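debug: dumping io for the single-chain case to check the tokenizer round-trip. Nothing else runs in this session.
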Amino acid sequence: MISACFVNVDTGGCCKMNTGKVSCGVVGGAKGFVGGFFSLWDAFCFVMKNPSLYKFVIIPFVINILVFIGVVYWGYDLFNQLVGEYLSPHDSWYWQILAMIIKFIAGLATMVAVFFTFTVVGNLIAAPFNDILSERTEQLLTGHMSDEPFSLKRIVKDLWRVMRDEIRKMLIFVVLMIVALLFNLLPGVGSLIYTIISGGLMLYFLIIEYTGYVFSRKHQGFKEQRLFIASNRLSSLGFALAVMCMLFIPFVQFLTIPMAVVAATQLCCCDCI
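debug: decoded output
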């Protein structure tokens, strides 16, 4: 049984510190879901109280802004291509209505494409920095500090391990999403089934993504990670739902990724795994 440390919604803190160690306990039920949902706010407060984490938050923050600008530019071109492919100048009223419908559908498709691309590319590029942020958060929680300073050499040393894990997760997620798309071929309920499955996959991917830094660093496999999530499903669901909501809010999404890294590390309480 894998134990984990979760947000204490009564005290507003994630972990109670006793003589440099993190006291752990599994929180279940509605309290676990609420704790997981508000873990991003708890992570923000934790970072504000620990200035040593600022540089590890700022670097992914800047990276995410640059990635977002590039993705939005690509999304704008994608929208124009989608609209231009199906629309040509017509004056008839019914064609104008059809044009509005096509633009609406193209806009939704572009938003979904931008969201997924930003999430995937942003996490992939910022992964080495997020891994260090997760590790430093763990050290502050446990009191076991590292003497190794932040440096380019440190990033390069961990680059292959982190990027390998990220690419593997991304490939699995993309394959599953493609399979889920096939449900749209079913008449009637196909779109509803796809919406439910794709939403569930996205939530599961988010908790896998952000707790993955801890498990990878501890040399724990996907099996252990799945057991952890299954044992704390409501807290994990609350966390993933909060992250998904924040990623849809313009500009707030830039801070969401590093805050999610900190929150996931708090939820795992690394020395409990």
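debug: round-trip ok. Confidence is low (pLDDT under 50) at residues 1-26.
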